[in-house]
Request: fold
Amino acid sequence: MNFWTDPLKVAADWLQGVFTSWGMNEVFAHVLVAFLGVLLLITILMVIDIFLVWIERKVVARFQDRIGPNRLGPFGLIQPFADIIKLIIKEDTTPAGADKVVYNLAPILSMMSVLIIWSVVPIAPVILSVNLNVGVLFLIAAGAIGTLSIIMAGWSSNNKFALIGAFRQVAMMVAFEVPMLAMLLIPTIFAGSMNMNDIIQAQGGLWYFVLSPLGALIFLVAIIAELGRAPFDLSEGESELVAGFNIEYSGMKFGMFYAGELLHAMTFGGIWGILFFGGYRFFGLEQVSPFLAIAIFLFKALLGYWVIMWVKYTMMRIRIDQMLVFNWVFLTPLSFALLMVTALMNALLQGAPVWLYAAGMFLSNVVVAWIALEVARSVSRKERQKVEGVAQVAEAHH
Amino acid sequence: MNEWLYVLLFMIVGALIPVGAILGGFLLGPKKPNPLKQSTYECGIEAVGEAWVQFKAQYYIFALVFLVFDVEAVFLFPWAVKLGALGLYAALEGVLFIAILVVGLLYAWRKGMLEWA
Reply:
């Protein structure tokens, strides 16, 4: 065992040795080493977060046929630092009549809810903070704190726009948590474990995207809704609510909401990669070096983030009632139908060879998707004919 | 138990970082409050009435429908973990359980609870 095969353990053991040689208590030294490790990971995440601002601005510029920030440093790379300096020296105003404790706690919780997700994210085979046996459930629990921060911000701001934005966001997050839960069950069924690392290890032969393409797609829609990004950006809705739940926030408190949102998007991109695209695995390349595995995972996370941005800058916002009806009437029944079919197929194909298992799963997904699309098409055709019929009657009366 | 120590540390460090950033902004930024600046924003005009407006009862109904499905997740996750070992009978049991929930959703749908009236 050396630094290149297991860097975290070597560094931790070395630090532990140093601290105990200073006459420190064994347990205290262990906690201190753990603390430093967590601090290192979160610091790296915050540095990545700073560059996410640059990535987001550059990518949106490209989607809109612009160049984006290009004045400060090479390719405008220094731009996010200028943004941070500007946010820090802004005056921090608190609106009159705001509930001060809740108002100040909301941006902190918003950032924290994203950072604690990373405690269960396996970054490389040997680099993971917590090998939690209920990792998948922990994801949902951490996500609930994010919902809480939004309702806190909206409620305490003493502003109508903020409150309306918060209502919408909470209704949406609560609604899309149901298909998200159902889709989290599918990798759990395949891997037979809720542990995130086990789920990655079980994807040695086949990525779960191959076994369940429809599941991956529904999960992507659900995470975009959880993030509150377009087409589900009703909580911010610039053209109707100005900025939504964070309208009364300025300076670094706004910065925390903004940075939290960007990091959240990349985190969910990474989780999508873990559950359906093999996480840090890439055809055995991850065995070469943990550093290569980190690069693979980061690449997949950024690719997931790019897909989320792609959707964001392509789609337009949908109305709150359309969004809720889309979830409860289409996405939730579809995700439960897929879950039932997957469970049954899993039981029926238990002893089958891998190729038969994979083909059966893939085909059952295609069939479920086809049936869902046909039903949706016939229902919308009937709706359209009804509307057209009414219009023709109105025309005749003229 | 050791693993939950890391989760606790993540919570502590994860809270300290935004607290530090906001504190930095608080120390470095100017502080010149005045009543006009602190009034809540409402598209440039003076705020009319209470900010805590009445909200649609429909939000409550959606939250109630959600509650049914959220509680069920607690039962479904252990089932999903052991599904491979338990075989067809357990899979059918789970499917039946989900089907009962879907019937509940259909009932709410037929009653018009899922429409934005």
In short: Chain A touches chain B through 83 residues (CB under 8 Å). The mean pLDDT of chain A is 84.
